[in-house]
Design brief:
Blueprint (H helix, E strand, L loop, with lengths): L5 H15 L11 E5 L2 E4 H17 L7 H24 L6 H15 L3 H10 L4 H21 L8 H14 L7 E10 L6 H19 L4 H8 L13 E2 L5 H7 L11 E3 L2 E11 L7 E12 L7 H16 L5 H8 L10 E5 L6 H8 L10 E3 L2 E14 L2 H31 L2 E3 L5
Antiparallel strand pairs: 1-2, 1-11, 3-4, 3-6, 5-6, 7-8, 7-10, 9-10
Helix pairs in contact: 1-2, 1-3, 1-6, 2-3, 3-6, 3-14, 4-6, 7-14
């Protein structure tokens, strides 16, 4: 898990790891600025980290602190991370070559390039392959250390979850999640009504509304003139507001119980609405946006290199766009995974179900749009976004979401306390850095 310590700390973290990839032996004009458990931090390392931090803040359009302040903050972060890396090594945390290689592929997939191209790009950016792999190793070691040491300290009980749910229910002001019961009086309009007919019906509805607001009984008018269901005074039933037409909710959201709306136009005619009942939501509602996608997956091999796969998918995309073939037919013919028989259909998926490089590409697509070739740890994909929908989570999933939110909210405080303990146990000597 990444350290949540604000923009500067995040940038410092990546810069420190970058700096750790530089040569550990001081150059002739170099000198030691700090020692952490007998391991030195050199001035050249510090200034490399400061440079990278400055560039990161500039990219994020963050305010850059004064030079001395920034240097002290970066050094402080370097000391903390060095102490943590040493703890990870001492307590047996190891990162094997396979994990590093997979992380390299993930970065290449994010940049949509193959591994040799990624390495070339990094060299142009001033980072050798060896330095990049050291950077990845340190990041993975710290991540695993935080997972083991920090996450294990966070406790979220069922009582905590119940309290958080109740607080969220009480503070929920979303009008579409309130429970409401509306009664309607409908003045129906013919399907092919002329503008004059519509104007006449609207004036009639205005007269009825004025008389209701003047004190006449809403239910009696419903019984006498409404073209909708007149049973029970035209009441539509207590339900969550998002189950009503949006126009009904917007017309009544600010009305008290007993209030009568302005005239609402719909395809059926002109509605006058009365608020019969309003309740705060009785259960916490959380929705997620599900996606339904298709893909064609080409797995990489000695013959099917990334370049060959990308070229083939470019051709398949052209066939689909020009109408020479359908996505489903090409998926059945070419895709190398279990969805091929279904025309590449992956079904409905919740957020987080796909690997990040696939999901990021999918989220950028509009419905009906087809991606360019997307590289992931599984191979190279051509993705079609079919459709999206929002669905309610079941109560168990809502509780787990709240539990995760509580753990997330408590991480920073727990991490800060733990990180200070690690630093306090370390021998730290800070030397003169003013040069």
């Amino acid at each position: 898990m990444n350290v949540r310590a604000g923009a500067l700390a995040l940038v410092c973290f990546s810069s420190v790891v970058w700096a750790s990839a530089y040569a550990q032996v001081a150059q002739p004009a170099d000198f030691i600025v700090a020692v952490v458990n007998s391991v030195p931090i050199t001035h050249s390392e510090l200034m490399a980290a400061v440079k990278r931090t400055t560039q990161g803040l500039q990219r994020q359009r963050q305010v850059i602190p004064a030079a001395d302040t920034l240097r002290r903050k970066v050094l402080d972060q370097m000391i903390s991370d060095r102490a943590q890396l040493q703890l990870a090594q001492e307590t047996g945390i190891r990162v094997d070559d396979a994990a590093i290689e997979q992380a390299e592929l993930d970065v290449a997939g994010q940049r949509q390039v193959d591994l040799p191209t990624l390495h070339s790009q990094l060299v142009k950016e001033g980072l050798s392959v060896e330095q990049f792999r050291t950077q990845i190793r340190d990041r993975l070691m710290l991540s695993r250390l935080h997972e083991r040491e920090v996450q294990s300290r966070i406790r979220v009980t069922d009582v905590d979850v119940d309290r958080a749910i109740q607080e969220q229910l009480e503070s929920n002001k979303d009008p579409f999640l309130q429970e409401i019961n509306l009664a309607q009086l409908l003045i129906a309009a013919p399907e092919k009504a002329t503008p004059d007919q519509l104007a006449s019906l609207y004036k009639y509805a205005e007269k009825i509304l004025a008389r209701i607001r003047g004190g006449e009984d809403f239910d009696r008018w419903v019984q006498n003139v409404s073209a909708a269901d007149r049973n029970n005074g035209g009441r539509l039933g207590l339900r969550r507001a998002d189950q009503y037409p949006q126009s009904f909710v917007l017309a009544t959201e600010k009305l008290p119980v007993g209030g009568v709306s302005e005239i609402v136009r719909s395809a059926a005619g002109f509605h006058i609405l009365k608020v019969v009942e309003k309740r705060a939501p009785s259960v916490l509602v959380r929705t997620v946006q599900q996606t339904r996608a298709r893909h064609i997956l080409l797995r990489l091999s000695a013959e099917m290199t990334q370049t060959v796969a990308q070229s083939l998918l470019v051709d398949l995309k052209k066939q689909i766009q020009t109408g020479r073939a359908t996505f489903q037919d090409l998926a059945r013919a070419y895709s190398q995974d279990g969805s091929a028989a279904q025309g590449g259909d992956l079904g409905w998926a919740n957020p987080g179900m796909y690997v990040p490089e696939f999901e990021e590409a999918l989220n950028r697509l509009a419905e009906g749009e087809i991606s360019n070739a997307v590289v992931s740890r599984f191979g190279v994909h051509l993705i079609e976004m079919v459709e999206r929908r929002r669905v309610d989570l079941n109560p168990r999933d809502v509780r787990e979401m709240v539990r995760s939110q509580l753990r997330e909210s408590r991480f920073q405080e727990t991490y800060t306390s733990w990180a200070q303990e690690v630093r306090d146990r370390a021998f730290v000597e800070i030397r003169d850095t003013v040069q």
